[in-house]
## 1
Amino acid sequence: MPPAKKRTRTYDPVKIRAAVTAQFGQVRRAVSGLTPEQLALPTRLGEWTVRDLAAHLTMAVAAVGRALERPEPPKADLTLLDYPSVTAPFAAAIADGARQLAAAEPDLDALYARTEEELTERLAAAPEGRVLDLRSGAMSLTDFLVTRTIELVVHTDDLNAAVPGLDIPYDRQALAACTRLLADALAAKAPGASTEVRIPPYAVVQCVEGPRHTRGTPPNVVETDPLTWIRLATGRVTWTEALADAKVSASGERADLGGLLPVLA
């Protein structure tokens, strides 16, 4: 008998809409206070400056409105677990677009204000069951908004790392959705039930082939906090670094996730 197909986690449409709007608002308020010198600082994303990264986040959010303008496909053919693989081919084009936008839009405050206003208006008019036509395929609006929490949360962390003293808060719902999707992506990449990955208070998943655990304390356990997990899952921190800094605990012979990370690069 073939193995059961892994179910994709579902998300509350109202909470996800609120999470994307809230996290974008947090970033907007922080970016509005940055000086030209701070905007020129390098980031941990190759050649991107803080200005490039800030511009990219408006692109990531504006993609929702652009997709809502296109005709609706008959049905979704992409799930959330497809997201890591379908976005990779567009990485270079996205990077080029962010740099071009940053150069063409000197007034980031105006860009953020316009993006936030358009997002609010488009979401208010969009039904919950709306399907979006994306360049990678068709996806439900709710699922696409979940992917926007990854963009916003991961890059909020990048901005905080790039600018000394910048401490942009994380919306709880956005952080939870980002953490859960990246955990589910690991479970999809390494299906199995021999290792339990715990990311309190948001996610617990089982992964890695091997003996299935049924009761009591699992023999292979990995535990870490949400931000460390997000950094591991996106390649901001390596498995070895996280272990050395005591940011992750791992017990059991199948608890080494180093060869499975990152799940989203």
## 2
Amino acid sequence: MPSLRKSLFAAVLVSATALSPLAASAETILGALSKAYQNNSQLNSARAGVRVTDEGVAIAKSGWRPTITGSADIDFSRSHFDARSNGPGSNRSISLTTGNFGVQIDQTLFDGFQTRNNVAAAESQVRASVESLRNTEENILFNAASAYMDVIRDRQVAVLTEQNLQFLTEQARAARSRFDVGEGTRTDVAQADAERSSAVAELAAARAQALASAATYRQIVGDEPGRLRAASPLSKLLPSNLDAAIAIASSEHPAILA
């Protein structure tokens, strides 16, 4: 399972490097996952959080480093005296400036293993944050894949609903034509019109759902859904049975590891 996950992420990253304005017009699911991996704001926020947590290790290790304290003190004084014996205008003054400067270096030799334990705790927090980031990545990529497939499904539903409306419109026209030549009843016409009106409402709902799915896709992937290519089945990548799936999740799922 680790090799499978690594190969999937490798494919996503390769697709990310291959993205360009000259790429094929039809988007693939790997391309959508690549965009989500690069552009999703929640994922970028989680990455920034991991970088912040990394700084905790350096802060904890500061307990092993020396502390340097500097001090400075300057005094300035001026004294005046009257030297009358030397004649008028012979007042004099003496200025005196004194200063003290010092540097003190303190190095802790033993702190009861406090720094060592703080560093171990900070490193554990980093590892937990990395696993939490992997969990966020999995959730974002899963949501991106779901949004991708939802857009394809809802667009197809809207197309089929529109075709159904066209069929019922033709049915209503045929019912009215039969009524005009005396081969149908007003009830037949009313039923055909009612079915057509219901189809109009269903088409509006289907188109609204397709727009909502496209908005969700844009929120997660960070790009408008253009022409989306159908994804290949992934059943061959699944565990062979439920027990195997539970065992893999228990030992590898990042939320549990965190």
## 3
Amino acid sequence: MTRPASTAGYGEAAERLAVQYEGVTFAEVHRSLLHLYPAPPAAVLDIGAGTGRDAAALAALGHRVVAAEPTPELRAVGERLHAGSGVRWVADALPTLPVLGAEGGHYDLVLLTAVWMHLAPAECPPGMDALARLLAPGGRLALTLRHGPVPPGRRMFDLPPEHTIALAAARGLHLLHRGGRPDLHGREGVRWTELVFERGR
């Protein structure tokens, strides 16, 4: 697949980013959201899975996990680090997620951890369309929004939570949780908004 603009700066830094990503645990990153995630076995999709930290942890809990990662270097690191985890890797990217859309699968939980901020505002409506189509009835979408300075060479947008909440509501996804947390890597000026939505049954 052609590299989307949203992945700028990630391929060449894959090995260094793997150390960063794997340096915090799934439980640490998702602590305030875990009670909102379905019990295993559920169908889980991790979009922008990076090196597979979260995907592998969810698979270890007994979920059926698909990890979608558009950056081949990150995907290769993830497949190496988490070999034997049972995670199925897919090369696909927002906003349209053409590969996953063509598969026609539906998921009980969709994760976008540190991903949504890479979409330009104009890409967010088609992105939310794609996400809504992938959710099973009663399925939940958990995403984080980054706020603060943008690292050199990366493409990020400081999207207001209200914008994302409105996009989700227009597609039948109602807000279950809105919270915030500091940056787990201690980057100055960086903070995160956490949002969880549920599709109607």
